[in-house]
Design goal:
Helix content: 55-70%
Number of domains: 3
Strand content: under 5%
CATH superfamily of the largest domain: EF-hand
Number of strands: 2
Strand order of the largest sheet: 1-2
Oligomer: single chain
CATH class of the largest domain: Mainly Alpha
CATH architecture of the largest domain: Orthogonal Bundle
Mean pLDDT: 78
Structural class: mainly alpha
Low-confidence stretches: 1-23, 384-394, 419-440
């Protein structure tokens, strides 16, 4: 009974269930999952699911029930929204730093339609409505974007092959072309591919994967066997698992000619084909009733043949030329950008050299000032040391004999300058000689004595 009620609830909430079961590939996938997880924890919100059909969910009518959820859930939803807004702002800042351009944050936030960026603080009814509608629309376009990515992958691979051929000489180019054609032919040589979702294709799974008698094939039993989570629906992953046997006929990871990216694209094509034929309510799930109904159609019993990727090229020659022109423009832009960055690098290196030279000059100036400061500090000490050494040399303690002779000589010169006999019999030169012979010059012996006396006075002062 509990399981039956759970399946009934999940049936009414098909879109949200799909989101929880599978990685959506959306850039807000984590935010989407966390919001749904907390909403399912609220008893009132889960109860409303029983009275809401899928179309109302897609149109956002279920979002109005947000006003009745518990305070704890609303608080957690507010926190989740603030985290998502901060994540988007961080992505915008990274884009701004990478492009080196100014970015209008509000203009970029408008591109994220899964939330109301005008109110970054609280999670309101409008936020849930936007989230459900955006997820529905984005998931519908997700397969289209995957096809475009694979198309670019194929054109890039062909472009690189052609560019590689240009680097070879004539003989090597011929061998490479022959090898390429041989690989294409080898890849195309594979067993017949059954139409996806047809009786032949499902019987082959019944026989090889389930090891059952193909003559006893029963659609209801087959559905129950491959509904791996037991919810009564085939989701996209469960459907894609049914095509593994068919894909193994064409692709082998050990073979050079087989590209595993092409295998995944083929799997996607098969799943889309079955969904378009069987999923009548377009909820991206195949219910048991939809599956049983599809097995009673003529297309199930007598299907057309299935054309693989090599029979359906992903691009035309014109699209390839446009793609190559686009790559050439991108390469030119990258070269211009590279040259600009190189010039900026050279300018930065030049400025760095100037800064290093200025730094060296400043260091030399500082060292010169430090030397001058040191010299000024040491000069008085050296002068004082020299004076003390001179005084010590002439002191009594260093040489008492010289000192005594200097004093005797000084005393002798002092007396000699006043001696009358030294002056030629006169009393003193300053008295009698100057008066009697005023025009005469003083004797040379007197001048010499006076000079010696002056020298002795200097020595005595230095003592």
């Amino acid at each position: 009974c509990i399981l039956r009620n759970l399946i009934w609830s999940l049936k009414l909430f098909l879109l949200l269930l799909f989101i929880l079961l599978k990685d959506t590939g959306l850039h807000y996938d984590r935010y989407l999952r966390e919001v749904i997880d907390f909403l399912e924890k609220d008893p009132h919100f889960r109860e409303k699911l029983h009275n809401t059909d899928m179309e109302d969910i897609k149109q956002g009518k279920l979002a109005k029930e947000l006003d009745f959820v518990s305070h704890h859930v609303r608080t957690k939803l507010d926190e989740l929204k603030r985290q998502e807004v901060n994540r988007l702002r961080t992505l915008i800042k990274v884009k701004q730093d990478m492009n080196g351009e100014k970015v209008d944050h509000k203009a970029l936030l408008k591109q994220f339609e899964h939330l109301n960026h005008m109110n970054p603080y609280t999670f309101e009814v409008e936020d849930l409505d936007r989230l459900i509608k955006s997820a529905t629309n984005d998931l519908e376009n997700f397969d289209k974007e995957r096809h475009e990515d694979f198309k670019r992958y194929e054109m890039t691979k062909e472009h690189e092959r052609k560019e590689h051929l240009k680097t070879l000489d004539e003989e090597a180019r011929k061998k490479e072309e022959e090898h390429y054609e041989e690989m294409k032919k080898k890849h195309a040589d594979h067993p017949k591919i059954n139409h996806p979702g047809s009786q032949d294709q499902l019987k082959e799974v019944w026989e090889e994967a389930d090891s059952l008698d193909p003559n006893e094939f029963d659609p209801k039993t087959f559905f129950n066997l491959h509904d791996t989570n037991g919810d009564g629906y085939f989701d996209e992953q469960e459907l894609e698992a049914l095509f593994t046997k068919e894909l193994e006929k064409v692709y082998d990871p050990t073979h050079e000619e087989d590209d595993m990216m092409e295998m995944e694209e083929e799997r996607l094509r098969m799943r889309e084909h079955v969904m378009n034929e069987v999923d009548t309510n377009r909820d991206r799930l195949v219910s048991r009733d939809e599956f049983i109904t599809a097995t009673n159609r003529k297309e199930f019993l007598e299907p057309d043949g299935w054309e693989t990727l090599e029979q359906n090229p992903m691009y035309t020659e014109e699209e390839l030329r446009e793609f190559e022109q686009h790559l050439a423009r991108e390469e030119q832009d990258l070269n211009l950008r590279s040259n600009e960055l190189l010039k900026q690098r050279e300018e930065l290196e030049r400025q760095q050299g100037q800064l290093n030279a200025q730094k060296m000059e400043l260091q030399q100036a500082v060292e010169h000032m430090e030397r001058l400061k040191t010299q000024k500090t040491e000069s008085p000490v050296q002068d004082k040391g020299q004076c003390n050494s001179f005084t010590f040399f002439w002191s009594k303690e260093f040489c008492p004999v010289i000192w005594n002779k200097i004093l005797i000589f000084y005393h002798y010169i002092s007396v000699f300058g006043k001696c009358s006999t030294f002056c030629g019999g006169n009393a003193t030169w300053g008295q009698s000689a100057f008066v009697t012979r005023s025009s005469a010059r003083p004797p040379r012996t007197f001048l010499a004595a006076q000079a010696l006396l002056s020298v002795c006075n200097v020595f005595v002062c230095c003592m």
